[in-house]
């Protein structure tokens, strides 16, 4: 068991901080989300659930069919965008002291936050709930963490 943990540890980012391990974890989760977006609309439709049904007719329609504007193409596009962000974050996990890579990773969280906020608050294609809360919390928390820790990692 100890040798298995040691071997696993050899794949982890080499620095002592938690931020790089978190970036690795988020990258792996994001790759999983990207793969899912190519094979199923369910996860992407949870994030982009569409407007909140107000009328009785909208509520009835929502029970039969999703109000989500997600199509096969938009799900795959979202999956590709997520994969690109995951790759940048993965590079940052292993090169956390490199200012350019750190900034690029930080930008991925800032852009994600702006994207999700505008889809929710401006365009109405997303609504607050389980599907949107996760990405918004990760983008907000990780972005704030990276800003606060800049001087600890970047020389």
From TrEMBL:
Named from the GO MF annotations, one term is: protein-macromolecule adaptor activity
Family stated for the protein in its record: Belongs to the ERG28 family.
Keywords of this entry = Endoplasmic reticulum, Lipid biosynthesis, Lipid metabolism, Membrane, Steroid biosynthesis, Steroid metabolism, Sterol biosynthesis, Sterol metabolism, Transmembrane, Transmembrane helix
Q: Which residues form a coiled coil?
A: none
Which InterPro entries does UniProt cross-reference here? Erg28
The UniProt transmembrane annotation reads 22-41, 104-123
Protein name per the record:
Ergosterol 28
Places the protein is found: Endoplasmic reticulum membrane
Instruction: Name a single GO cellular component.
Output: endoplasmic reticulum membrane
The Gene Ontology biological process terms listed for this entry are: sterol biosynthetic process
- Is Metal-binding set as a keyword in this record? no
Q: How does it sit in the membrane?
A: Multi-pass membrane protein
| Pfam families xrefs | Erg28
């Amino acid at each position: 068991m100890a040798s298995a943990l040691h071997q696993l540890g050899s794949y982890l980012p080499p620095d002592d901080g938690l931020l790089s391990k978190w970036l690795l974890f988020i990258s792996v989760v994001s790759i999983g989300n990207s793969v899912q977006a190519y094979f199923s609309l369910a996860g992407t439709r949870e994030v982009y659930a569409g407007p909140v049904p107000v009328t009785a007719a909208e509520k009835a329609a929502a029970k039969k069919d999703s109000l989500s504007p997600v199509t096969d193409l938009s799900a795959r596009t979202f999956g590709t965008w997520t994969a690109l962000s995951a790759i940048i974050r993965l590079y940052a996990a292993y090169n956390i002291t490199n200012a350019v890579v750190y900034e690029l990773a930080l930008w991925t969280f800032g852009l994600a936050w702006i994207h999700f906020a505008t889809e929710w608050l401006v365009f109405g294609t997303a609504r607050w709930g389980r599907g949107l809360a996760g990405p918004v919390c990760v983008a907000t928390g990780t972005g704030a963490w990276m800003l606060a820790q800049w001087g600890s990692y970047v020389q």
